[in-house]
Amino acid sequence: MKINHASIKKILVINLAFIGDVLLTTPVTRALRENYPGADIDMLVVPVAEPIARLNPYIHQTLVYDKRGKHKKPSQLWQLIRQLRQQDYDLTVSTNFALRGSMVAWASGARYRAGYDAQHAKWFLTHVAASHRPVIRHEAENQLDVLKPLGITTGNTSLTLQINPLDRQKAEEKVKRTPEKSLVVLCPAGSYPRKSWTVEGYAALLQSLSSQADCCLIGGPKEQACLEQINHRAGNLAQVFGGTLTLGESSALISQADLLITVDTAPLHIAQAVDTPVLALFGPTDPKGWGPRGPRDIVLQAPAACAPCWGKGNCERHACMEQISSDQVVSAALNMLGKQ
Fold first, then answer.
1. Burial class (CB in 10 A: 0-12, 13-18, 19+), 23
2. Which of 138, 136, 100, 135 is nearest to 116 (CA)?
3. What is the pLDDT of residues 249-304, one digit of tens each?
């Protein structure tokens, strides 16, 4: 179906994955804004990602699909569909491979529906992009493929967030700063344990940085015990924020930091969006697809033959992360702070 670009007044971008994935949709929303400057662009996301979608400067409003909560039952899902239909979207763009997103796009009643051919989703779409990716590229670049059938692209694949001033103020109130010191934020835990580095390594890192930097350990409520363990092992040198910062406040904190030290998880992409240098520790995942891309960023990765495994299969030694030495990380971190 040939698209009538002049008729596009309302657009819905659908991404039902997690925080990092929604952030990596930035180039798609930017390309849509560049091609449809007068259109309203909304975004449908899952609850955990809604606060970060709200900070996307190209999005008019965010909508939430709570598939495990208030939209779990068919009657509740129908209420969401009715809400979408009332918006009269002209175009929907489903940016990940999940079939559910394309089905929601079809149910929304939009005339034009772009998405991928994965999981038989093409039956619900009018403009179908190939899900096969013959070369390894960064995911921010990959996501632009969904717009190819529409004849839309952009040369800018950077990420961006518009920090809420209130979140910035609250973050400043919660974090104790020493005027002459740098601010370093550490995010030790990923979405599954194999992404994480060692407690001993993080403790040694905190001990080495504490003389010249105020250090903050961040994570969700589930990571609180791990963060406290790291801090205790280091001699309680850091401020610990395990589930005590909102996602907006965490983003504001990262934007104020001189350095983020992290594994492959959402704060890495947040740092990219707010131009904070990143020291990234990679093991079971591939930094070519998910790593930082800034000129000041550094990726440390051990040469493990089994990596990337993407967290699948048996893993007895966790070699990909344990072979990253604390000396390597400390040296890289101090070097990055020295160049600020």
1. buried
2. 100
3. 999 999 999 999 999 999 999 999 999 999 999 988 889 999 999 999 999 987 77
Distance between CA atoms of 124 and 133, rounded to whole angstroms?
21
The model's pTM:
0.93
Place of tokens 């763009």: 93
Cα(318)–Cα(333) distance, rounded to whole angstroms? 23
d(CA 233, CA 239): 13
Closest C-alpha to 32, from 51, 18, 49, 15 = 15
Tokens 């406290």 sit on residue: 228
Residue 339 three-state SS:
coil
- Phi then psi for residue 326, to 5 deg, are -65, -30
Backbone angles phi, psi at 112, to 5 degrees: -110, 135
The string of pLDDT tens digits covering residues 238-252 is 999 999 999 999 999
Count Cβ atoms within 10 A of the Cβ of residue 287 and give its class: 0-12 exposed, 13-18 middle, 19 or more buried.
Answer: buried
Q: How is residue 330 written in tokens?
A: 């400390």
